[in-house]
Each structure stands twice: as structure tokens, then as C-alpha cells.
Amino acid sequence: MPLLAPYLPHLHKLVLAGNAITANGVRSLIAHPPVRSLVLLDLAENAIDDGGLEALADAFTSNTLRVSEDLPLQGNPASEQAQEAAQRAAKKARKKAAAAAAEATSGAAPAVAVA
Q: Does residue 18 belong to any structural domain of this protein?
């Protein structure tokens, strides 16, 4: 990995389709993400079950990982509900990141909730 380290900040698309990746592989990717933000993370046609997609959704929710455009998941044994939940979590993380970026560029003070 040290040979690749200088290039990882420039990584935008990570295509891992058709590699027999399991839930454990997804957890390893999340634990040691090559970069925190990608344009494309292609995990289609693997062996990812509901547990793997739940871990992926949790990574999006906790901002451990972000995918700005595409998240192909088709062809995995995970349920349709788990795939939809992962897609929703990715979309919600994208919106949150976009709102934070817009706020940062506008120079507006962040909103503070008062109880």
C-alpha cells in the first residue's frame, strides 16, 4: 500500500464489481477506506449480504465514507430493502455534505439549535 499512498488522494472511482466481496470485505473497506470521499463506489455483482450493506449504510451515516454520485449494488444477495437503505443513507450523506459545502462557501454562520 505505501507505493499507492501518494495516489490515493486522487482516487475518485473505485470499481470492485464482480470480485466476490462479502460483508467482511465491506467492513474492511470501511475500517480502512482508501479515501473518505469517492465519486463512484461500484460494489455490484459481489456476495454482499444485508449485514454488509447495513455496515455500508452506517459508514455513510457516520460520515466515515461518502459517495457523491454512483453506488451500484445490484447483483448482490442482499435484500432489496437493504440495498434501498444503503442508497438512502448515501443520498442523505450527499445532501448533508452539499449543504455544509454551500454554507462554507456562503460565509454564513452555521445554524445553532437552542433548546
A: yes
Which residues are registered as beta bridge partners of 32? none
User: Which ranges of the chain would DSSP assign to H, the alpha helix?
Assistant: 23-31, 50-61, 80-106
In a domain, 27, yes or no: yes
How many structural domains are present in the chain?
A: 1
Identify the domain containing residue 41 by its residue range: 5-106
Residues 6+ apart with CB under 8 A from 93: 60, 61, 63, 66, 67
Over residues 22-81, the pLDDT tens digits come to 999 999 988 877 777 888 999 999 999 999 999 999 999 998 888 888 899 999 999 999
For residue 37, tell me if it sits in a domain.
yes
The values of phi and psi at residue 6, to 5°, are: -65, -20
The grid coordinates of residue 103 equal: 454554507
CA distances from 69 to 23, 93, 95, 106, 112 (A): 22, 11, 11, 23, 29
